[in-house]
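Sequence in, structure out.
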Amino acid sequence: MNTYGVHTIHGRAPAVATGLAMARPDLDVWVIGGDGDMLSIGGNHLIHALRRNINLNILLFNNQIYGLTKGQFSPTSQKGKVTKSSPVGLVSRPFNPISVALGAEATFVARTHDLDRRHMQEVFRRAYEHEGSAFVEVLQNCNVFNDGVFATITKKDVREDMLIDLQHGKPILFGSEKQFGVARRPEGVVIVEVAEVGIEYILVHDETIRNPSTAFSLSRLAKTPTTPTPVGVFRAIDSGEFSTSVAAQIREVQAQLGKGDLATLLRSQPTWEV
Protein backbone atom coordinates (compact mmCIF):
# COMPACT_ATOMS: atom_id res chain seq x y z
CA MET A 1 0.00 0.00 0.00
CA ASN A 2 1.06 3.56 -0.69
CA THR A 3 -0.59 5.27 2.25
CA TYR A 4 -0.29 7.68 5.13
CA GLY A 5 -2.39 8.46 8.16
CA VAL A 6 -3.69 11.46 10.07
CA HIS A 7 -4.30 11.41 13.83
CA THR A 8 -7.29 13.59 14.74
CA ILE A 9 -9.01 14.71 17.91
CA HIS A 10 -10.64 11.84 19.85
CA GLY A 11 -14.07 11.12 18.38
CA ARG A 12 -13.71 13.61 15.54
CA ALA A 13 -12.17 11.36 12.91
CA PRO A 14 -15.40 11.17 10.80
CA ALA A 15 -15.59 14.98 10.74
CA VAL A 16 -11.97 15.40 9.64
CA ALA A 17 -12.37 12.58 7.12
CA THR A 18 -15.50 14.27 5.74
CA GLY A 19 -13.51 17.39 4.91
CA LEU A 20 -10.71 15.33 3.39
CA ALA A 21 -13.08 13.27 1.24
CA MET A 22 -14.85 16.41 0.04
CA ALA A 23 -11.61 18.18 -0.89
CA ARG A 24 -9.81 15.14 -2.34
CA PRO A 25 -12.31 12.77 -3.95
CA ASP A 26 -9.36 11.06 -5.66
CA LEU A 27 -8.23 9.56 -2.33
CA ASP A 28 -9.47 6.39 -0.63
CA VAL A 29 -10.29 7.54 2.90
CA TRP A 30 -10.42 5.03 5.77
CA VAL A 31 -11.60 6.04 9.26
CA ILE A 32 -10.36 3.85 12.11
CA GLY A 33 -11.78 4.10 15.64
CA GLY A 34 -13.01 2.18 18.64
CA ASP A 35 -16.37 1.74 20.32
CA GLY A 36 -15.70 4.52 22.83
CA ASP A 37 -14.21 6.85 20.24
CA MET A 38 -16.96 6.36 17.66
CA LEU A 39 -20.07 5.93 19.82
CA SER A 40 -19.41 8.17 22.81
CA ILE A 41 -17.68 11.48 22.20
CA GLY A 42 -17.82 10.88 18.45
CA GLY A 43 -21.34 9.49 18.15
CA ASN A 44 -22.78 12.60 16.56
CA HIS A 45 -19.98 12.81 13.99
CA LEU A 46 -20.44 9.14 13.09
CA ILE A 47 -24.19 9.24 12.45
CA HIS A 48 -23.96 12.36 10.28
CA ALA A 49 -21.11 10.97 8.19
CA LEU A 50 -23.28 7.91 7.59
CA ARG A 51 -26.42 9.98 6.97
CA ARG A 52 -24.70 12.13 4.35
CA ASN A 53 -23.32 9.06 2.55
CA ILE A 54 -19.85 10.50 2.07
CA ASN A 55 -17.34 8.24 0.35
CA LEU A 56 -15.64 6.95 3.53
CA ASN A 57 -14.72 3.48 4.81
CA ILE A 58 -15.42 3.55 8.54
CA LEU A 59 -14.02 0.71 10.67
CA LEU A 60 -15.28 0.53 14.25
CA PHE A 61 -13.18 -1.85 16.34
CA ASN A 62 -15.47 -2.98 19.14
CA ASN A 63 -13.91 -4.56 22.23
CA GLN A 64 -16.68 -3.35 24.58
CA ILE A 65 -14.21 -1.44 26.77
CA TYR A 66 -12.03 1.68 26.86
CA GLY A 67 -8.73 -0.12 26.31
CA LEU A 68 -6.32 2.77 25.75
CA THR A 69 -7.54 4.67 28.82
CA LYS A 70 -7.17 1.61 31.06
CA GLY A 71 -10.44 -0.23 31.30
CA GLN A 72 -13.45 2.01 31.84
CA PHE A 73 -16.82 0.88 30.50
CA SER A 74 -17.70 2.01 26.96
CA PRO A 75 -21.03 2.58 25.15
CA THR A 76 -21.02 -1.09 24.06
CA SER A 77 -20.15 -2.64 27.45
CA GLN A 78 -22.75 -5.14 28.59
CA LYS A 79 -25.17 -4.39 31.40
CA GLY A 80 -23.73 -5.57 34.72
CA LYS A 81 -20.13 -5.27 33.48
CA VAL A 82 -17.67 -4.59 36.32
CA THR A 83 -14.97 -2.13 35.25
CA LYS A 84 -12.82 0.54 36.86
CA SER A 85 -15.60 3.07 36.30
CA SER A 86 -18.45 0.68 37.22
CA PRO A 87 -17.03 -1.23 40.24
CA VAL A 88 -20.42 -2.65 41.27
CA GLY A 89 -21.71 -3.32 37.77
CA LEU A 90 -22.88 -1.22 34.82
CA VAL A 91 -26.56 -0.26 34.92
CA SER A 92 -26.99 1.28 31.45
CA ARG A 93 -27.89 -0.66 28.30
CA PRO A 94 -25.28 -0.92 25.53
CA PHE A 95 -25.40 0.48 22.03
CA ASN A 96 -25.61 -1.98 19.15
CA PRO A 97 -23.23 -0.48 16.54
CA ILE A 98 -24.93 -2.18 13.58
CA SER A 99 -28.35 -0.96 14.73
CA VAL A 100 -26.99 2.58 15.16
CA ALA A 101 -25.55 2.57 11.63
CA LEU A 102 -28.77 1.25 10.13
CA GLY A 103 -30.77 3.82 12.09
CA ALA A 104 -28.61 6.51 10.48
CA GLU A 105 -29.56 5.04 7.06
CA ALA A 106 -25.99 3.97 6.25
CA THR A 107 -25.88 2.55 2.73
CA PHE A 108 -23.32 -0.16 3.55
CA VAL A 109 -23.31 -1.92 6.92
CA ALA A 110 -21.29 -5.02 7.80
CA ARG A 111 -19.68 -6.94 10.65
CA THR A 112 -16.58 -9.13 10.88
CA HIS A 113 -14.21 -10.25 13.63
CA ASP A 114 -10.51 -10.37 14.40
CA LEU A 115 -10.02 -14.15 14.29
CA ASP A 116 -10.95 -14.79 10.66
CA ARG A 117 -8.59 -12.97 8.33
CA ARG A 118 -10.24 -14.24 5.15
CA HIS A 119 -13.70 -13.08 6.21
CA MET A 120 -12.32 -9.71 7.35
CA GLN A 121 -10.51 -9.13 4.05
CA GLU A 122 -13.63 -9.94 2.05
CA VAL A 123 -15.77 -7.54 4.13
CA PHE A 124 -13.13 -4.81 3.79
CA ARG A 125 -12.99 -5.39 0.04
CA ARG A 126 -16.77 -4.99 -0.21
CA ALA A 127 -16.60 -1.80 1.85
CA TYR A 128 -13.85 -0.40 -0.36
CA GLU A 129 -15.84 -1.07 -3.53
CA HIS A 130 -18.97 0.64 -2.17
CA GLU A 131 -19.72 4.19 -3.33
CA GLY A 132 -20.70 6.18 -0.25
CA SER A 133 -20.29 5.63 3.47
CA ALA A 134 -19.30 2.06 4.33
CA PHE A 135 -19.54 1.08 8.00
CA VAL A 136 -17.86 -2.09 9.30
CA GLU A 137 -17.97 -3.25 12.92
CA VAL A 138 -15.00 -5.44 13.82
CA LEU A 139 -15.47 -7.61 16.91
CA GLN A 140 -12.07 -7.35 18.58
CA ASN A 141 -10.55 -8.83 21.70
CA CYS A 142 -8.84 -6.69 24.36
CA ASN A 143 -6.48 -9.13 26.06
CA VAL A 144 -5.69 -6.71 28.88
CA PHE A 145 -9.00 -5.23 30.08
CA ASN A 146 -11.68 -7.41 28.46
CA ASP A 147 -10.01 -10.67 27.49
CA GLY A 148 -12.21 -13.26 25.80
CA VAL A 149 -15.23 -10.97 25.42
CA PHE A 150 -16.21 -12.59 22.11
CA ALA A 151 -14.55 -15.99 22.65
CA THR A 152 -17.87 -17.85 22.93
CA ILE A 153 -18.77 -16.91 19.35
CA THR A 154 -15.49 -16.29 17.46
CA LYS A 155 -13.19 -19.13 18.52
CA LYS A 156 -12.64 -21.58 15.68
CA ASP A 157 -14.25 -24.55 17.44
CA VAL A 158 -17.55 -22.71 18.06
CA ARG A 159 -17.93 -20.50 14.98
CA GLU A 160 -20.14 -22.85 12.98
CA ASP A 161 -22.77 -22.90 15.73
CA MET A 162 -22.41 -19.30 16.89
CA LEU A 163 -21.72 -17.12 13.83
CA ILE A 164 -24.54 -16.57 11.35
CA ASP A 165 -22.82 -15.81 8.04
CA LEU A 166 -25.04 -13.54 5.95
CA GLN A 167 -24.67 -14.27 2.23
CA HIS A 168 -26.68 -12.34 -0.31
CA GLY A 169 -29.28 -14.43 -2.15
CA LYS A 170 -28.90 -17.47 0.11
CA PRO A 171 -31.06 -18.83 2.95
CA ILE A 172 -29.73 -17.71 6.34
CA LEU A 173 -28.50 -21.01 7.78
CA PHE A 174 -25.86 -21.87 10.37
CA GLY A 175 -24.66 -24.72 12.53
CA SER A 176 -22.26 -27.57 11.86
CA GLU A 177 -24.96 -29.28 9.75
CA LYS A 178 -26.87 -26.12 8.82
CA GLN A 179 -29.52 -27.29 11.24
CA PHE A 180 -30.42 -23.78 12.39
CA GLY A 181 -31.81 -20.89 10.42
CA VAL A 182 -33.43 -17.49 10.64
CA ALA A 183 -37.15 -17.06 9.93
CA ARG A 184 -39.42 -14.04 9.83
CA ARG A 185 -42.09 -13.61 12.47
CA PRO A 186 -44.53 -10.73 13.13
CA GLU A 187 -42.25 -9.46 15.90
CA GLY A 188 -39.15 -9.57 13.67
CA VAL A 189 -36.70 -12.35 12.79
CA VAL A 190 -35.98 -15.32 15.03
CA ILE A 191 -33.68 -18.33 15.15
CA VAL A 192 -35.40 -21.65 14.39
CA GLU A 193 -34.54 -25.29 13.80
CA VAL A 194 -34.80 -26.05 10.10
CA ALA A 195 -36.22 -29.54 10.73
CA GLU A 196 -39.13 -28.05 12.65
CA VAL A 197 -40.21 -25.31 10.23
CA GLY A 198 -38.92 -26.51 6.84
CA ILE A 199 -36.35 -24.90 4.56
CA GLU A 200 -39.06 -22.97 2.69
CA TYR A 201 -39.65 -20.82 5.78
CA ILE A 202 -36.00 -19.80 6.17
CA LEU A 203 -35.35 -16.16 5.30
CA VAL A 204 -33.31 -15.57 2.13
CA HIS A 205 -30.85 -12.75 2.77
CA ASP A 206 -31.19 -9.70 0.55
CA GLU A 207 -28.69 -6.97 1.37
CA THR A 208 -30.12 -4.69 -1.36
CA ILE A 209 -33.55 -4.06 0.21
CA ARG A 210 -33.88 -0.29 0.49
CA ASN A 211 -36.09 -0.43 3.57
CA PRO A 212 -33.61 -1.14 6.42
CA SER A 213 -36.17 -2.82 8.70
CA THR A 214 -35.15 -6.42 7.87
CA ALA A 215 -31.46 -5.62 8.27
CA PHE A 216 -32.27 -3.89 11.55
CA SER A 217 -34.11 -6.99 12.79
CA LEU A 218 -31.06 -9.11 11.89
CA SER A 219 -28.87 -6.73 13.88
CA ARG A 220 -31.03 -7.39 16.97
CA LEU A 221 -30.74 -11.20 16.84
CA ALA A 222 -27.81 -11.34 19.27
CA LYS A 223 -28.80 -9.98 22.66
CA THR A 224 -25.34 -10.55 24.19
CA PRO A 225 -21.87 -11.54 22.89
CA THR A 226 -22.59 -15.13 23.96
CA THR A 227 -25.51 -15.88 21.62
CA PRO A 228 -25.58 -16.64 17.86
CA THR A 229 -24.48 -13.47 16.07
CA PRO A 230 -24.83 -12.42 12.42
CA VAL A 231 -21.67 -11.43 10.52
CA GLY A 232 -21.19 -10.29 6.95
CA VAL A 233 -23.00 -7.59 5.00
CA PHE A 234 -26.34 -6.50 6.42
CA ARG A 235 -27.11 -3.77 3.89
CA ALA A 236 -25.59 -2.56 0.61
CA ILE A 237 -27.57 -0.10 -1.52
CA ASP A 238 -26.83 2.69 -3.99
CA SER A 239 -28.05 6.09 -2.87
CA GLY A 240 -26.01 8.93 -4.37
CA GLU A 241 -22.63 9.80 -2.86
CA PHE A 242 -22.54 13.16 -1.04
CA SER A 243 -19.39 14.85 -2.34
CA THR A 244 -20.27 13.96 -5.94
CA SER A 245 -23.68 15.59 -5.51
CA VAL A 246 -22.16 18.70 -3.89
CA ALA A 247 -19.59 19.05 -6.70
CA ALA A 248 -22.35 18.77 -9.30
CA GLN A 249 -24.36 21.42 -7.47
CA ILE A 250 -21.37 23.80 -7.45
CA ARG A 251 -20.80 23.31 -11.18
CA GLU A 252 -24.47 24.01 -11.87
CA VAL A 253 -24.45 27.24 -9.87
CA GLN A 254 -21.21 28.39 -11.50
CA ALA A 255 -22.67 27.73 -14.93
CA GLN A 256 -25.68 29.90 -14.08
CA LEU A 257 -24.05 32.70 -12.13
CA GLY A 258 -20.37 32.52 -12.98
CA LYS A 259 -17.50 32.28 -10.53
CA GLY A 260 -18.38 33.74 -7.15
CA ASP A 261 -16.62 36.59 -5.37
CA LEU A 262 -15.83 36.08 -1.68
CA ALA A 263 -16.05 39.79 -0.75
CA THR A 264 -19.45 40.06 -2.42
CA LEU A 265 -20.62 36.91 -0.65
CA LEU A 266 -19.60 38.22 2.77
CA ARG A 267 -21.59 41.41 2.18
CA SER A 268 -24.58 39.79 0.51
CA GLN A 269 -26.69 39.68 3.68
CA PRO A 270 -27.55 42.45 6.17
CA THR A 271 -24.44 43.83 7.84
CA TRP A 272 -23.95 46.09 10.84
CA GLU A 273 -21.29 48.59 11.75
CA VAL A 274 -20.41 48.65 15.46
